[in-house]
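Subject: sequence -> structure tokens, single chain

Hey, anyone have a minute? Need the predicted structure for the following. Not urgent.
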Amino acid sequence: MPEPIRLVHAEPLPHPAWTEIIAADRRLATTPVGAATEEHEVARLFEGVRAYQVGSLRDELPRHLWPDAALLARAPDLLAVSTHGAGYDTVDVPAMTRAGVLVMTQAGGNAEGVAEHAVAMMLALLKRIPEAHRAMLEGRAQDRAALMGRELAGRTLGLIGLGNIGTRVARICRDAFSCRVLAADPYLDTATVAARGAEKVDLSELLAASDVVSIHCPLTEETRGMIGGTALAAMRDGAILVNTARQFIHDEAAVLEALESGRLAGAGLDCWDREPQPDPANALLRHPRVLASPHTAGVTEESRRRIATWGAQQLIGLFLRGERPPRLVNPEAWPRFAERFAHAFGRSPETPAPA
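Reply:
Had a minute. Here:
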């Protein structure tokens, strides 16, 4: 039997299902890396490694384990990088593409978990549940009218990004709450947006018209800092902001200022400049009209098992079954990858491995 194909996986893994599936096939072998892995160990641990299963949460992974040009110099045999979830914030995609390394995600695997979390934040903030809870703890809940809330039903919801998660949020809010749903997504045409349950608008129209703005786009150079002072000033007075997508899309200082001025009625934030635990002294974290969570929108048993299973199956499909990855981020890397794959294994990537 030939030597197993070597993988490396970054811990923590989303769910034990990943290692269970990989370990069940003797043609694969995996080695863990993580917070305790020293920089001088990288070249040894990645020697002969063909695939890297990696997290995308920046502060959970040492910088020297991020898949970038520096890591590629120590891992010359690497052919594929697969992330734990939908994001790939730690991955230098252009560097991978230049080297003929495929980048894959598990996009859609946590869509239900994140969508439910986003809607839960909308409801809690409109109904002012966190404020009511705090008032009761502090013994000042006698005046119930001072905690007057609003209903989600019939309101206008603005979605920034209409991918797997945004589409699910649109469906929940349209079908369960009769919301008018607007979507700003420059990569989708009007017909596609309509098929996904929303009206296509540009960002400025969405901000001006929405009672609730919910962010569901990736972090890119286009979206970094997108919701800053100018965008927040364009929102309706008393609107709600929800971000269950990625850190740095909203500007923390600008959101705090908008809350303190009263322009924003509340903010549901699952994404923070420092994750998963922001500085406890962070004024935004402590604001009474902020509902905070430590990037746990997709941390459900079902979502974690799903993305772990998808991640393992996608790697097995690529290396053992001759299948093109269904969630490929950089398809333009395929020709160079195919050449390198053939050189490494003596067969094309479309050809299944011997049993």
